[in-house]
Amino acid sequence: MPALRRRLLYLALGAALIALLVVAPSALADALTPESGGGSRNATDIDTLYKITLYIAIVIFLIVEGVLIWSLVKFRARRGGPEAAQIRGNTPLELGWTVGAALILVVLTVITFMYLGDIKNPPASSPGGLGNASEYASVGQPNPPKSGGRTVHIDVNGQQYIWRFDYGGSQQLFSYYEMVVPTNTTVTLSVTGSDVIHSWWIPKLGGKVDGVPGYENETWFKVSKPGVYKGQCAELCGYNHADMRARVRAVTPAEFEGWAQRQRADIKASQEALSRQRTEREKTNQVD
Hints:
18% strand
């Protein structure tokens, strides 16, 4: 009796969990597939390609497991039944599943290459993006088309345990932890590391990109609407790995220009203050 009650309790708990997940479908959102929804086409294409492969794999799994279970039931040993037939091979069947598997592989290969170009190659900036003239260039990957307006290139550097973002340009512009980008503008990234291997990952804006010391990996994204997109380092990089978070804040081009101007002014003011402190310290040391 206690064993029966235990089974009923487990069944009730399982049914309650399933009911909660059905009532709150967002609890399983993107649990089995990559995230998308940040407006960046490469993230959407990665998600779509993953789902196509997953659905094909599910169909194959159900067919194989269904045939296996059907065979186990139909041809199971029965008391007093005839001895099971010993089948050594079936050439048409073996040829069939070999050719079928090859065709599935060809289909997946074709679909992958159909999406791969859009995932890898940065597109032009959209109307309403940043400015009209090209200012930044990407490194190690195809350059975004210049006809779409300016693009922004950012050097992403992983350090134990924080991210640094360098925007380049004649005046120094950088930030830590939060990357600010303009909407409707193609943003290309060169990702590296200063100490150990890190992994740049903003799930809604694309796949993971390793930051390897001494080597640069490239990726891109283009956000279509303002918002904050959170991520984290996806490579175990030390005891504070769990705290190595990052986020991308997408703002309008006008807001981006204002932020960049304020950030450059703050950086310049900090450098000048530090220079004055060093000069005063040197003077004090000379007097002593």
